[in-house]
């Protein structure tokens, strides 16, 4: 998942970015003022925006209004020092999905960030299922046919990203942009290797030979999850 952090306090931004990268292993882009944050949000695709209210050049509320004015549905978690009911109502009416009052606990921020991303993908439940897979997005574990699959962090993030988009063709560029931060270009020659290893690990958990592939390669376009198998017909039908 890729997160945009718009925060002008450098130390706080560093701590938040490190926690989001080390914990849920999100790719994090940082904008130090509202104008840069608005530019990033316009030109790049994010799974979540964490937005401070008190920003230089363009305040957080204005960034939020611009975002929603463009009909951008990206979930927004606002960080605010204002706890008054009137201020919170204003934020929610402007299109904020959630807020945290400063100071806050990093664990709570991460939990809320994960919940907003799940809701943004159309699933509020932490379990993703399909094709014989069970993905626990809280524990970041994967099972196929009930067998635990040992994936690397990058392999897990690829599979989770695809599971949020069943039957949608995801380009290599889109995958890279959501797996890495602005240095993603340096990783563009390894995405095929990660997908290949992911396929091998998923296949190794199935005892029977010739098991269906979970991830399909769409030549020249990217990757997508395979279709769910049709249920077998009962005899006599």
Can you walk me through this structure?
The protein is of the alpha/beta class. It has two domains: 2-120, Rossmann fold; 127-225, Orthogonal Bundle (Arc Repressor Mutant, subunit A). Helices cover 38% and strands 20% of the residues. It contains eight helices and eleven strands. The strands form three sheets. Strands 2-1-3-4-5 form a five-stranded parallel beta sheet, sandwiched between helices. It is elongated. The model has no long low-confidence stretch (mean pLDDT 85).
- Write out the CATH superfamily name of the largest domain: Response regulator
H and E order: EHEHEHEHEHEEEEHHHEE
Alpha-carbon distance between the two ends: 45 Å
Rg over alpha carbons: 20 Å
CATH class of the largest domain: Alpha Beta
- Strand percentage lies at 15-25%
> What would the average pLDDT be, to the nearest integer?
85
Low-confidence stretches: none
Concise overview:
With 237 residues, this protein is of the alpha/beta class. It has 8 helices and 11 strands.
Q: What attributes characterize this protein structure?
A:
about 240 residues, alpha/beta, Rossmann fold, Arc Repressor Mutant, subunit A, 2 domains, five-stranded parallel beta sheet, four-stranded antiparallel beta sheet, elongated
Give the SSE layout:
Layout: E1 2-6, H1 10-22, E2 27-31, H2 34-43, E3 48-52, H3 60-69, E4 76-80, H4 85-94, E5 98-101, H5 106-120, E6 127-130, E7 133-136, E8 141-144, E9 147-149, H6 153-163, H7 172-179, H8 191-204, E10 215-218, E11 222-225
Parallel strand pairs: 1-2, 1-3, 3-4, 4-5
Antiparallel strand pairs: 6-7, 7-8, 8-9, 10-11
């Amino acid at each position: 998942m890729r997160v945009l952090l718009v925060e002008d306090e450098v130390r706080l931004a560093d701590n938040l970015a490190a926690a989001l990268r080390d914990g849920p292993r999100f790719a994090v882009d940082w904008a130090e003022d509202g104008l840069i944050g608005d530019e990033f949000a316009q030109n790049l695709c994010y799974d979540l925006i964490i937005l401070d209210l008190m920003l230089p050049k363009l305040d957080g509320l204005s960034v939020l209004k611009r975002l929603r004015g463009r009909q951008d549905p990206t979930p927004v978690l606002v960080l605010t020092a204002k706890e008054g009911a009137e201020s919170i109502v204003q934020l929610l009416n402007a299109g904020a999905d959630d807020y945290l009052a400063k100071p806050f606990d990093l664990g709570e921020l991460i939990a809320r960030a994960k919940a907003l991303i799940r809701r943004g993908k159309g699933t509020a439940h932490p379990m993703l299922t399909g094709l014989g897979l069970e993905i626990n997005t809280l524990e970041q574990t994967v099972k196929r046919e009930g067998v635990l699959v040992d994936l690397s962090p990058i392999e897990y993030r690829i599979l989770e990203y695809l599971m949020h988009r069943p039957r949608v063709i995801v380009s290599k560029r889109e995958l890279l942009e959501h797996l890495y931060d602005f240095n993603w270009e340096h990783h563009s020659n390894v995405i095929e290797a990660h997908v290949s290893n992911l396929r091998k690990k998923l296949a190794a958990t199935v005892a029977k030979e010739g098991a269906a592939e979970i991830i399909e390669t769409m030549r020249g376009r990217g990757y997508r999850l395979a279709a769910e198998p049709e249920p077998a017909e009962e005899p006599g039908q």
